[in-house]
Amino acid sequence: MTHPAFSTDLSRLIRPRSIALIGASERPQSIGGRTLSNLLDHSQIDGELYLVNPTRTELRGQRCWPSIASLPQTPDVAVIAVPASGVIAVMEECAARRVPFAIILTSGFGEAGAEGERAQARLKEIAEQAGMRIYGPNCPGLTNVNQRLGMTFSPSFPHDLVKGPIGLATQGGGLGRNVMQAMERGIGIGLWASTGNEVDLQVADFIHYMATAPDIKVIVTLLEGIKDGPRFLAALQCAADNGKPVIALKVGKSEYGQRAAQSHTASLTGSAEVNSAVFRQYGVIEVDDIDELVDTAWLFARAMPGEREAIGVYCSSGGTTALTADAVGTAGLTLAEFAPETTALLRSKLPDYAAVNNPVDTTAAVLSDADLIESTLGAVAADPNLGCVIAPIALDYGETTIRMAQTIIAAQKRVQSPIVPIWMSDRLGEGYRMLVAAGFAPPRSIGKAIAAIRRWTEWGRQHRGAAGRPIRRLPVAAPSAPAGAVRSLSELQAKALLAQAGIPLLPVAVARTRDEARQLADGMGYPVVAKIASPDILHKSDIGGVRVGISDGAQVELAWDDIMASARQHKPGAAIDGLLIEKMAPGGGVELMAGVTRDPVFGHVMTFGLGGVYVEILRDVTRRLLPLSPADAASMVREIRCFPVLAGARGRPVADVPALERLLLGVSEFVMANAARIEEMDLNPIWVGAEGEGALPLDAVVVERSAA
């Protein structure tokens, strides 16, 4: 069933029954000429291909039509390859003919300045009025390798035609083609959508399509920016619901990268930390480079991770064996303990000086007796205690390496656990070519192979934990685009809102005079904390505006004098409401923090972690989109590096973690109930006591946005 965020079935775009190429050309190096060649010479079109060129009646033996209006039937897809100045007129013709899909290959729109943006807005307007869907502009086209259909001008299309279960969705064409050409390593990519400026259809639409496409098993995406956060999340949700891994490489993590991405696609790049948090929350596998993307996608395409996570290592070089075992341990992975029958067979076949326990080092014995490879590798691959086998090949050794490749290929046919051959040599010999031809896509280093296996294993663990339930269920609505004025509430106002929402707080009030401050403190009972109360002073401790541990009335009066004098000195123009008097938290405990910001792409995001003065220094934090589920709150608390402190490390009392989780959920519910109003929140520090003592925000900042 189509998700509400995706109102159009894309099947007729991806597998069209009829195609019109507008701008078909006899010039072989033109966009129209290259696209014509890819469609006529290298595609297997299951239907009609109409060539549209008003200056020609025939091209390469095919009839040419003067316009879309003159065609004998309405095509499913119009591929537009005319200059930018003519695209709008062609789109108007397509709209009048009710063409359902248009692929606009032409550049010179949103990426080309103000005039291009206006033209792009007109394209969107034409499509919306006619109920059309636009792919592009400024894109290389759409490539359905599994159907051998190239609606693209790329001269590489005829060379990148290895079918397979991987679906690829990108915005940029260059990096997308780079991934496509990883077919040279042995991977198969069945569908590539490169969406360009995304005036209408976005990467999210193709992730959503691939999530239910029967010929796609693994989804890979390269992102420069995300224009519609909820639409993107709905696509990830659909993939999660259908058990399909999504592997993502997001560019624009640094300021330099953000500027480059914006100039390329005019997309919002967003905060790298928020994007990564979204990926984790939706089970997306985030990678750091193209090699890792390809290695990880290949591993998922070979086999989905099962319950057995332990690894077998099979090698003929002692140093390489040790290097691989080190990499396994450093990555937090586990070497399998072989079943007794596996060890017995290895011991019977290999020399006495070979290592037959995992990792297996066959030694150089296999160099003189290649039959040893076949008899022993098969036994390791079939061991019931492991989830995959790593077979690092340190060097190209002619016939022996060829025999190793043959044995890996044969063994894989007999076992379910994937065998991961690692080709470490720069000499890509016949053994490497055999592995590629068999679809093994050998990683080129131990580190890259281990990175892919670690991500494969972690996804399997997370997916099994989420079995039978979706990862998230968020409303599919765009984040509000507030236009009202922003103001910071006073701490008293902020805490009053929190109290109304049922969030536990210590007693607090504002004194307007020195005498009133003493009376409030006497009523609360000592010790108390005194803070400057001013809407113009958010960071109170920075100007000497806080006193803690006040133990009697005289100290309250002294604190009044000192704090007021300090405020006048550092912030002479600030409006001062008085002195905030608050009951001091009990001794001990841990100081944490929780903050909420409104992300322009995804909406409200919570940041949680170590608080007090350490948050900016140590940056021990984790993030989630709101609203939080109880599972989200629990995992956030346990993800921070200082969690062992909460769990009672080195004799410390165990912290009241359930109260902390309830506090995070309460904050989430409060923000969601006031989503249009809350721009930012900062609860720092949050005091967390020992078991049963609770979790209490000691300071609160709320920035709200008024109605426009």
Automatic annotation (TrEMBL):
Keywords: ATP-binding, Nucleotide-binding
Pfam family, any one: ATP-grasp_5
Protein name listed in UniProt: Acyl-CoA synthetase (NDP forming)
All copies of domain ATP-grasp, residue ranges: 495-531
